[in-house]
Amino acid sequence: MKYCWLALLLLFAAAPAPAHPLAPALLDLRESAGGRVEVLLKTSLTLSRELQQPLFPARCRVVDRRPPERAADARLERWRLDCGAQGLAGARIAMAGDHEYDLNVVVNIARADGSNIRTLLSPATPGFVVPARESGLHVTGRYLGLGVGHLLTGLDHLLFVLGLLLWLHGGRALPVAVSAFTLGHSVTLALATLGLARVAAAPVELGIALSILWLAIQLGGGSGREPRRSLEHALFLPFVFGLLHGLGFAGALIEVGLPDDGVPLALLGFNAGIELGQLAFIGAVALLHRGVANRVRNWAPARVVGTHLIGAMSAFWIWERGWPLLFPAAGG
């Protein structure tokens, strides 16, 4: 699967180095009877600088706005709205401002009927329409979109999937490896999200970087021998690494949160979105192969460059994620 090296070069050219930064902002809306809504915007002091402000629908009148406050390492802004008898149902909640830093905003909406809605706003999707009542289909679809977006914007996860393609060179071992990786991360995603398995985020992120470095070493050939690609290796190793990556996926899902009355559907939708994103990436690589394979004859230089890029990026993440663990005071 030599064509993957071109995909790797394009991936590095198009994607930023950071691999899934946590959302720095929280927008909390608490609705009470009569359409009154208490709003809190919590933003990290390191990134605040009034980069983003919430936009409320015209029918939601601002009754009160308190001056910004500081609490620990966060900037707090509060509003009180009057959205009338209709309340937040059908209202579009959005963010506006300078999106230079590609900030994400976790939105938590506590409805007057006791239900909760959680979603994620980003520069790509800065608005969200509050449904009158969130159906099961709506919950599944919303979390499916979050799963697709998380996979396709995560350079670390994409590099690992690409590394599997390069390592196995196609053949019958490839679908076995992809299936094993999927099974592994599905298991830990469910366990961690439901609170049945708890692992600190920092070691998980470091482990993901180490898994990518392992693939880079395999691609480099080590002692010059061909890397082992038996069905046993294609099944066991991707499954083990999938368990690790699933904990990383769970961290993103926990950050957004799950709806109180739709946890199974949200979990199913997010996991399905991860798989759709993964398949879309593999399909894009296959299309790239179809378009350029007959035009490129010597892939050896690209293979060397690609291997070193994977190794260098994984080594950078190991340093970036491992340093705060070894030296907490220096890291934070």
How would the blueprint of this fold be written?
Blueprint: H1 4-14, E1 25-31, E2 36-44, E3 52-55, E4 61-71, E5 74-82, E6 92-97, E7 105-110, E8 116-121, E9 127-129, H2 136-152, H3 155-168, H4 173-193, H5 201-220, H6 231-256, H7 263-292, H8 300-326, H9 328-331
Parallel strand pairs: 1-7
Antiparallel strand pairs: 1-2, 2-5, 3-6, 4-5, 6-9, 7-8
Note down, in words, how this protein is organized.
It is a single chain. The two termini are 42 Å apart. Helices cover 51% and strands 18% of the residues. The protein has helices at 4-14, 136-152, 155-168, 173-193, 201-220, 231-256, 263-292, 300-326, 328-331, and strands spanning 25-31, 36-44, 52-55, 61-71, 74-82, 92-97, 105-110, 116-121, 127-129. The chain folds into 2 domains: 4-20 and 151-331, no CATH class; 25-103. With 332 residues, it is an alpha+beta fold. Strand 7 and strand 8 (116-121) form a beta hairpin.
Number of domains: 2
Query: What series of H and E elements makes up the topology?
Result: HEEEEEEEEEHHHHHHHH
Please mark out the parts with pLDDT under 50 across 5 or more consecutive residues, or reply none. 12-18, 222-227
Task: Note the overall shape.
Answer: elongated
Mean pLDDT: 78
CA-atom Rg in angstroms: 22 Å
Strand arrangement across the biggest beta sheet:
4-5-2-1-7-8
Helix content: 40-55%
What is the subunit organization of this protein?
single chain
Largest sheet: 6 strands, mixed
What is the number of strand segments?
9
SS content category: alpha+beta
- Total helix count? 9
Q: How far is the first residue's CA from the last residue's CA?
A: 42 Å
Proportion of residues in β-strands: 15-25%
